[in-house]
Amino acid sequence: MIISPYAQRTPEWHKERLGLPTASCFEKIITTTGQISKQREKYLYELTGETLSGRPTERFVTNKMKAATEREADARWLYEIRKRVDVQEVGLCYKDEQKKFGYSPDGLIGEKGRLEIKDAEPHIQAMRLDKGWSVADHFQQIQGGLYVSDGEWCDLMSYCEGMEPIFILFERDEKFIEKLRVALDDFCMELVMLVKKLKAIG
Fold this sequence. Notes:
Radius of gyration: 17 Å
CATH class: Alpha Beta
Structural class: alpha+beta
Number of strands: 7
Number of domains: 1
Strand order of the largest sheet: 4-5-6-7
CATH architecture: Alpha-Beta Complex
Shape: globular
Order of helices and strands: EHHHEEEEHHEEH
CATH topology: Lambda Exonuclease, Chain A
Mean pLDDT: 93
Largest sheet: 4 strands, mixed
Number of helices: 6
């Protein structure tokens, strides 16, 4: 794993992510069952557009999303207290020197542990505490993060200030990761070729 020196959400971090498939969007490439996602083509053109224009795809950021980002530090601190571990904040991680795709974890725990934090509104946290938390939407991100960062396990945390947090432990799913590896290689190759093709037109 190669770790970028730039902190998350800095201008340099955003620049590094331009045109780069990242774990938070791996669900747009592959489904939880290993099938090709219906969002794949759109995501391919989004990243192609970012590469050619040098501008990120417009994504609307609400005030709630900004507040959730600000609360991430509180969640990370609570995790350290509850689990009695140190969590290392890092920027963008690459699997190797090819830097074809990346992963920005919410924290590294030792050599092989990873942390992903999801901020929840009070009513959502209450429902998760009462009925359980369906985490299928985060499966590709977590397994993708473990693949990119060579991690062995990841704690997924649902956090709401003032309420009991939820922790769900994920271990590597090697069968899925192999399907992801193939899907990522194909996607990245197609991305390079599409960028090359459109550059030639210009």
